[in-house]
Write a structure and sequence with these properties.
By secondary structure, this protein is α+β, with helices and mostly antiparallel strands. Helix content is about 30%, strand content about 20%. An eight-stranded mixed β-sheet has the order 1-8-7-4-5-6-2-3, covered by helices on one side.
């Protein structure tokens, strides 16, 4: 083998080595294999949904709206009143701005109650980070399930995705500015949502006082 041939083979090998990461990265993305856990959400990331501030909801504020999520709350909205805009500060129960889990209430009372309890248990599992998350359930005209501790309620229309080709959302994770950051379908599990919530809270630490 001549010197020129050896140099050409070295050049080909070097080019192959430099270009190898590109098809490998594409294969990892396509198969969702080998991607670091912190880089991928368990739902649709940044879906085409208008922000929470544009949902035109009537928020129901109860006398116990400032109760901690681990404390008991009344089952009915006694003394409730309507307030437009973002969930009121009085309902946040913490000085920090909150992320929000939001979902439309199902029409079946048993299903609605089971869904509300599922996200309440997830909320409690956050422990000391629980005050940084709120739960907002939306009903068209009236609620069919008893109110769960720490649950923020609102009446109005649950907005569909702006993109007509998007699948319906059963749950949305919203940042403190009202932007929907992750949307989930009916197959989502509490464990998967918990991973996304913890990841967001970790990446957005509370500012020092």
């Amino acid at each position: 083998m001549t010197h020129v041939m050896r140099q050409r083979l070295k050049l080909v090998a070097l080019l192959g080595l430099l270009s190898a990461p590109l098809p490998l990265a594409w294969a990892m993305l396509s198969a969702q294999v080998g991607i670091p856990e912190g880089r991928v959400a368990n739902g649709a990331l940044l879906p085409k949904v208008k922000p929470l501030t544009d949902w035109s909801l009537d928020y129901l504020v109860t006398e116990n709206a400032t109760d901690n999520v681990t404390e008991n709350a009344t089952d009915s909205a006694v003394g409730a009143k309507e307030a437009p805009g973002m969930p009121p500060l009085a309902a946040r129960g913490a000085d920090e701005q909150r992320f929000w889990l939001s979902w439309p209430e199902p029409n079946q009372p048993q299903l609605a109650a089971a869904q509300a309890e599922r996200w309440w248990r997830l909320h409690r599992a956050l422990g000391k980070e629980a005050p940084r998350l709120g739960r907002l359930v939306v009903a068209e005209k009236a609620f069919v399930h008893p109110q769960v501790p720490g649950e923020q309620r609102a009446l109005g229309h649950w907005p569909s995705p702006n993109d007509a080709t998007s699948a319906p959302h059963q749950l949305r994770l919203i940042d403190p500015h009202g932007q929907v950051v992750v949307a989930y379908g009916p197959e989502i599990t509490p464990q998967a949502v918990m991973k996304d919530v913890r990841r967001l809270l970790k990446r957005n630490p509370v500012a020092p006082r």
